[in-house]
Design brief:
This protein is α/β, with parallel strands linked by helices. It has 8 helices and 9 strands. A hairpin with a 5-residue loop joins strand 1 and strand 2. The relative contact order is 0.14.
Length: 230
C-alpha cells in the first residue's frame, strides 16, 4: 500500500502539470512541447510566469520568446511581453537560486550561495533595457510611460538587497508578479485602444517562433560578446 502511494504521488503531479500545461496557451505561442518546457530550466521559468500573467483579470495579449532585430543586424530575445490598454509589460525571466544582490546603476549583480560561493551576472535591468530599446524601434514608440520593465526571479531565490531608481522598473520574485502588476495598474491610465493592442500584437507576431538559424546566430553573437568581455 505504501509503495502504491509513493508511486501515485509523482504520477499525480505529472498528470496535474500536464493537464495545466495543455490548458494554457503557452504551448501554442511558444511552440514548446511539455518535455521541452519542464526539462529546460529557462523554459519552465517562462512557463510559470506566463501562467501567472494568464490569470490576471485584465484584457491582454501575451507573447513569448521574441527575437527582435537590432540596428547592428543582431537580435535581442524578449522572454515575455504582455500588451494591455495600460501599455507594455516587458518581462525578463531569471530562474536563479541563492541570494541576489544588485543595484540598477551597477553593471554586475551578485548571486551568493550558502556555501559562500559567489557568481557575477550582467545587470538584468540593463539587459531588459536593451530589449525595450529594440521593441520601441520596431514599434515606432517613443513614450517611456508606455513600458514597464519587470525582472522576475524564481521563488527559490532570495532578493537580499536590490536598489532601484526608476519608477517603471520592478525586480521581484515570481509569486509577487500579479500583485506587483496590479499595483502598477491602479496608478496607470488607459493609453492604448483595443485596435492599438491588436496592431502591436500583429506587428510583433513575425518575431516569435524564430527559425533554428536565427536562434543559433543569436546565441553565437551572445557568446562572442562574452568572450570579448572575458
Amino acid at each position: 500500500m505504501i509503495v502504491f502511494i509513493l508511486l501515485s504521488i509523482p504520477l499525480f503531479i505529472f498528470y496535474t502539470n500536464y493537464r495545466e500545461y495543455n490548458q494554457s496557451r503557452y504551448r501554442k505561442v511558444s511552440n514548446h512541447t511539455y518535455w521541452e518546457t519542464f526539462f529546460n530550466k529557462g523554459n519552465s521559468g517562462e512557463y510559470y510566469i506566463y501562467r501567472r500573467l494568464e490569470h490576471l483579470k485584465i484584457s491582454k495579449l501575451i507573447l513569448t520568446n521574441l527575437y527582435i532585430p537590432k540596428k547592428d543586424g543582431s537580435t535581442t530575445e524578449v522572454d515575455l511581453l504582455m500588451i494591455t490598454k495600460y501599455g507594455f509589460f516587458v518581462v525578463e525571466s531569471k530562474n536563479y537560486q541563492g541570494w541576489i544582490f544588485g543595484d540598477e546603476k551597477h553593471r554586475q549583480w551578485t548571486q551568493t550561495f550558502p556555501n559562500k560561493k559567489k557568481f557575477k551576472f550582467f545587470n538584468p535591468i540593463w539587459q531588459n533595457k536593451g530589449h525595450i530599446s529594440a521593441l520601441k524601434e520596431v514599434l515606432g514608440i517613443t513614450e517611456d510611460s508606455l513600458i514597464q520593465s519587470l525582472i522576475v526571479f524564481s521563488n527559490e531565490c532570495e532578493l537580499k538587497k536590490i536598489t532601484l531608481t526608476s519608477e517603471n522598473v520592478h525586480v521581484l520574485k515570481r509569486n509577487q508578479l500579479n500583485s506587483a502588476i496590479n499595483r502598477v495598474l491602479k496608478k496607470s491610465h488607459v493609453q492604448l485602444s483595443a485596435d492599438d493592442i491588436k496592431k502591436y500584437y500583429h506587428m510583433l507576431s513575425p518575431y516569435i517562433r524564430a527559425s533554428k538559424e536565427v536562434q543559433e546566430v543569436h546565441i553565437q553573437k551572445i557568446n562572442e560578446k562574452l568572450q570579448r568581455k572575458s
